[in-house]
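User: Hey, quick favor. My workstation is busy. Could you predict this chain's structure for me?
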Amino acid sequence: MKTNLLVLFFFLIYIPSLHSQKKTDANIIGHVTSGGEHVHFATVSIPGTTVGTSTDETGHFQLINMPLGKHIIRAYSIGYKAVEKEVVLKAGETIELNFELDPDMLGLDEIVVTADRGEIKRVESASIVNTLSPKLFTSTQSVTLSEGLNFSPGLRMENNCQNCGFSQVRMNGMEGPYSQILINSRPIFSGLAGVYGLELIPANMIEKVEVVRGGGSAIYGSNAIAGTINIILKEPESSTYEAGFNSNFTGVGVSGSGGAAPDYSANFNTSIVSADSKTGFSLIGFTRKRDIFDANNDGYSELSQLSSITLGTTIYHKFGLRNKLSVDFYNINEARDGGNRLDYTVHERDIAESLKHDIKAGAVTFEQYFRGYDLLSVYFSTQLLDRDSYYGANRTLSSYGKSKDITYNIGFQYKAVFDKSTLIGGIENTSGALKDYKMGYPDYQNAVINNDTITSVPHTDNTIIADQKTGTTGLFLQYDLKMNRLKLGFGGRFEHFAITDNFNPAGNNSGNVISPRINIMYEVAKPLQARVSYSQGYRAPQIFNEDLHIEASGSRKIIIVNDPGLKQEKSHSVMASLDFNRLLGTVNTGFLAEFFYTRLTDAFVNEIGSPDEEGTVYYTRMNAPGGATVSGLNMELRLKPLTQFSVTGGFTIQKSTYDEPQRFSEKIFFRTPADYGFLIADWDFTDNFCLSSSFNYTGKMLVPYFGPNTDPVTGELRKSESFFDLGLKISHTVKINGASVQWYAGMKNIFNSYQSDFDSGVNRDPSYIYGPVSPRTIYLGIRFGNMLN
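Assistant: No problem, here it is.
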């Protein structure tokens, strides 16, 4: 199967690519404006082809050597409604074509791809799609992906370890592994990458992030029970450049702490597109260095030290009018270190969680249009990850580790567009191989000593911890039909999964899963849409990201393993929403109310074992008796009374419970607040100054505690307080010819709404951490370029 897909991949690329476009000297020149102002970097294209370009920083464009005959030309830009005009092109003629765009205040015309694996306007999608734009990352001063994920309904980012900063995003209250993370719509974000990966991806790599809540397994495969987060990387569309430098000071003015921790980052983006728009090249770079932050001045980290370097590139070429080949690659090198005595070698420290990541990822995608708007996509993506780790306490030599992980995804899909319906189908294979082992070490305790001289030192061999291969082959179909005000979507995916455990054959598992999805959208009135959906999903009993993080303290070490009889977890999800968008008086108003209900059968839970002689506690993942239910309401409000002022907010109310009591005789999911939300406001109060404010609310939650003076198995259960995290940012932009220079400064978590009862000392519980990720932080920086958002 894999060989056949590869052969098909290169065959489809090679044959159509032999045909090049003839030079017609039929050209279009023009500009794109809105309200009398030129719109820079707007997209101008011919739908159903790969022909297109972008306006420059002055709002002008040119299309040269265009195909002859009658064509539809479309102009589009984020924040504006698309406009189409018809032209007739003749050889040797140049015509002028100008566009005037109306603002799209609420983003209803925005093109999204995650809903059904194909481009569609957000307002026409049968599934609700929320987007995080570069402007949002800028307004909230989110340097990495993880910081920006707090500003979408139903999402909440959390730190799960004081030592190393292991983090995850919860969607609709469910843990990170219940959400499928995609890179350019491909599921290559492996479990090992997921341990720290959301903090590794810099914001300047991202074109936008699309979030689809609810089960998406019918389209994207396993682990999409809570929803899907699709990270769409930047692609060269015009010749641009941008660079910036940012200084953060974490913990400013926090009493009782070990002092503010500096956090510096720098980034650049540049792209070059040929005059005929056939070839494009982009390059991105990012580097960051952060010191540890010690919240209670006990000598141990609450935020780990880290340093990283990221480089990435994307190249595309259009061989003809209706095909395109894209290649992208990025490399992330990151080192993080937490615990105490950071000036010492890790095995000479009381607690150390130290990791080095080398992530290399690449993708090749070929697109070919047929029969009008039909589109064939053939793709191959892969990710390779090497990790050196040390998870240990009490100055032991036995805690060094090495992990190697490879994931790839290969497949094709065809989108057929009819008059009132669309059919998308395809087949893909996603496979991975993970090997994790403990490094051998000198056994000085059993050394042979003669005359006070060590003459022989036994050495411990490397020990395999995990050696697992996973493979899933899926066949998917999605059919959408529009009938006047009603739109119906029917989807399904048949998937065969196989897990081969080379270290423990008892962990071998395989099965076939059919995951259906039904979506219904009805336009109740012009400004009001109602949506209802049902979907099924599953999680296979493989190694997950939290298994690859070892929690270490002086009193115990936690390792998560799967029960040999672990069965796949299944889900049934129902969602219903009302989406209202209208101009009320002079205020553009959007309001979304979304009810969600997910029923989990054979839900995964952890059973805590007793510590062994070395203090290691094994958490065994098992299937809970009965099941679990997650339900609640997501709400989103968008207001734009003026073009210079906008407000976006979201709030979630939810309940997540098991059928039967679990740890601490509780049914409620831990670390899951019953309510949480966000608010963002932007005000361009002059042509050069902008004021941005961001707010996060986190409600009370149950948090397990296994610190000193508690039983290492039973521990105790505590309830957190509520948190109100307020941020403020001001920026000043100066135009210099075709470029801009922007200075900015601000503060996050102004009132230092931050956990106040961190555990301390060598025997602390490092997972006893909750609430906002960072304390009060002051920042300032500079950006310059010709494409500032």
